[in-house]
Amino acid sequence: MAAITLAKLAEKLGAELRGDGSVEIHSIAGMGKAAEGQITFLSDSKYRKQLADCKADAVMLREADVEFFQGNALVVKDPYLSYALVAQLLDTTPAAATEIAVSAFVDPTAQLGDNVAIGHNAVIEAGVTLGNNVQVGAGCFIGKNAVIGDNTKLWANVTIYHNVELGSDCLVQSSTVIGADGFGYANDKGEWVKIPQLGTVRIGNRVEIGSCTTIDRGALDDTIIEDNVIIDNQMQIAHNVQIGYGTAMAGGTIVAGSTKIGKYCIIGGASVLNGHIEIADGVTITGMGMVMRSIEEKGMYSSGIPLQTNREWRKTATRVHRIDDMNKRLKAVEKELAAKDK
User: Fold this and answer.
1) In the chain, is it the N or the C terminus that has fewer CB atoms within a 10 Å radius of its CB?
2) What is the pLDDT of residues 103-153, one digit of tens each?
3) Rounded to whole angstroms, how far apart are CA atoms 41 and 44?
């Protein structure tokens, strides 16, 4: 986007302008590196002292911090949210595709909305429906009868299997695979017998999915991701998982099959969720959480041992191994004391 005046930014943010509204802003930067023509933000008052040396043409901050900055300011309730909105306005990320490339293959039965763009060497199979303004990056594969909603963007080399439904205003980063077979097998006297995965994946609107993430199709019922969910990079979402509205999941997390995650949950990075369990609405699981059972009440949950020196960790591990023995001895002492009290 071209430069925008502070007055216009204030209007779009619903901010109070302090200073010269005619100043033009062309980009956003961190406070320590921001310079002329740039805007920055102060979201945490403990960094107020940095305002004195700030070279930005404007700062987004709260009313309580205005007196500590002598330059142009946009006074807002939430500077971090305002940063996100301004970053969207000034975003220079290119389109995933700008036209239908000559090298792309589009089956004649596919239905394309207005202003669809498809990159080089992409494949659009029979029966696919692409909504208005969809961008399909180079090397993408969209399988038979898949449906992609309006304004959704797929970066390069995304694979969407057959019958998958992806809503409007979604963003899928490169090399993600949606709709591959779930891990379903029966065992016949030591021989694995594959169970065809007959469900699909249904993803709502305004969902963002990071790169190299896999979301498996359901075995019989569907894998379902509701609206406004954000999923980070390198994650495994197994078959028949359900993820509720507004949930955020950080990178490296693994969710086993048929688990149901509620609304507005936050799952920390590298967490592992067992299969066939339910997570209540509003649950936060901190990083590297190991969730073996259902969580029925909202709140914050943690597991694991934080990093220690090797010497401390060895002592901790030794004590953990002795817990069962200590518990038996404690019960014996309690039993003995109870007998004496009688």
Assistant:
1) C
2) 999 999 999 999 999 999 999 999 999 999 999 999 999 999 999 999 999
3) 9
Tell the CATH superfamily of the 105-301 domain. Answer: Hexapeptide repeat proteins (2.160.10.10)
**110 close to 124: Cβ distance less than 8 angstroms:** yes
Q: How confident is the model at residue 340 (pLDDT cuts 50, 70, 90)?
A: confident
Q: Which amino acid is at 156?
A: A
Dihedral angle sign, alpha carbons of residues 319, 324, 325, 327 = positive
Q: Return d(Cα 313, Cα 6) in angstroms, integer.
A: 54
Note whether 65 and 18 are within 8 A (CB): no
Sequence-separated (6 or more) residues with CB below 8 Å from residue 53: none
Nearest alpha carbon to residue 165 among 130, 141, 133, 135:
130
| Mean of pLDDT over the chain | 96
Q: How far apart are CA 31 and CA 55, in angstroms?
A: 8
For residue 163 the two structure tokens come to 């019958």
Fold match, 4-89 / 105-301: no
Tens digits of residue pLDDT in 162-197: 999 999 999 999 999 999 999 999 999 999 999 999
**CATH says 4-89 is which class?**
alpha beta
Q: Where exactly are the structural domains of the chain?
A: 4-89, 105-301, 310-341
Q: Which residues are catalytic?
A: 239
Phi, psi of 283 (to 5 degrees): -90, 135
DSSP string covering 87-115: HHHT--PPPS-SSB-TT-EE-TT-EE-TT
Spatial neighbors of 297 by CB under 8 A, at least 6 apart, are 280
> What was the pLDDT predicted at 338?
87
277-302 pLDDT tens trace: 999 999 999 999 999 999 999 999 99
pTM score of the predicted model:
0.92
**Distance (Å, rounded) from C-alpha 173 to C-alpha 187?**
36
